[in-house]
Amino acid sequence: MTDFLAMGGYAAYVWPAYAVFFAVLAWDYAAPALRRRRALRELRARLARQSVRKGASA
Amino acid sequence: MRPGSTAAACTAVLRRDLLLAWRRRGDAAFPVLYALIVATLFPFALGPEDALLARIAAGVVLLTVLLAMLLAFDALFRPDLEDGSLELLLLAPQPLALLLGMKILAHWLTTALPLIVIAPLLAMMLHLPAPAQPVLLAALLLGTPLLSLLGAVLVALTAGTHRSGMLLALMLLPLTVPVVIFAAGAVSAAEAGLPHLAPLLWLGAALVLALVLAPLACAAALRIALDA
Amino acid sequence: MNTLTLWLHKLGSPPTFYRFAGAVRPWLLAAALLAGAIGLYGGLVLAPADYQQGDAYRIIFIHVPSAWMGLFIYACMAAAGFVALVWRIKLAEIVAMECAPIGAAFTFITLVTGSLWGKPMWGTWWTWDARLTSELVLLFLYLGVIGLYYAIEDRRKAARAAAFLALIGIINLPIVHFSVQWWNTLHQGSTVRILGPSHIAPSMLWPLLAMALATKLYFGASLLGRARVALLAQEGGKDWVRALAQPEGSRP
Question: Which of B185, B189, B228 sits opposite C156 (nearest CB)?
Fold first, then answer.
């Protein structure tokens, strides 16, 4: 197992490359989740404001 | 020319822009002074040795002219956008692409031509070898209209946004890579005494292509930016 | 119209697309992870060491698929942008604009893994090799599209302008590639051409293709996810979005 990790002496280049690959794709996959939460929060705030305004004008 | 015909409209737009530029001809000096100052910064940064300067002279002149034009692009549509005459151009019955072609021509005459006039001075200051001087001029004469046409399309895209200078650079500079490569390639080939006609012909071919397609793309881009 | 075009037509409406994307996305991701696992197992464990580069060449299994994805996604973006410009379909605009960050991510991965691979092979982190340079220009093209999309306030107009820039970019891609190749031969001698294995052993080839499939499946999953969120953000006014936001709001 250790020589697998050693990657023929090039471990210092192969594993960081794979780390960057998975890190960037993980971030790319997770980024919309944050945007989704923010979008829903803003939408709910707008809905709440509208219902208050409708309540006040009724 | 019958009044109201396309030819009359085109000459009217060209005459108007050149007249406006002539009335404020002091502004034409800005790109020239900018290029002069930037070109003189290089010896301060890299040292005055002739051999080194000669090696980088062509590239410095080309990139300085490119950056000076990049800064001057803002004046292409912004004044007309602010006083509303751009909307009138959009509503004109004549083909918008031709009218915009005239505006791009006027812009090239008022900004790029002065730069081409002083380019030999810059090249001489940076000790560009003599055989390369005419080729540099030819490369600029073919390259700068190409840059003007390409830049006009991208300026039209960002016509709606304010303070879009940096954005224009991010969008335009990657697209000017081929122009820079072939222009600098021609001059360095001439310096080395190699045949330098091929890159110039490539630039000429690209220019002819851009002359036909860029005004059309610029008209489409302006319609997207202004009335979508 | 037959069922396929009817289904495709219905897919154009945001709520239908939202539900469809939500359903398909996990399956795409699962398939991507499966294909990726198989590909990496084949590439990292089964494939023999390269006679010249030893094990350093194993970076190829993420470097080359990412490079392919960088170009593939740009083509998808330009195609979706063309549809958006010609037929003014809101969903095509969203798909085109959500392609850009994924493409930029893959191009960035290509550059970093290429540099990491170049260090042991050429001794430097960055060389002006023709392909790496073209890849860098491709990254700038992506950033230009993303920058323009966020510079214009009105979402629909921003999408159409950025889609137009993507079309200009796709015309320029071959020109840039050709001119960089020409420029590279002009200043040749900087790199030894061992990065691109012209004849690749079959035991190394199938993991590469498996990874290419995995990255495409991943692209589908990520794109659908991003398109769903963009729909939510843009269609805030519509009642199908309000209905969606409401029950989640009622939960404590």
Answer: B228
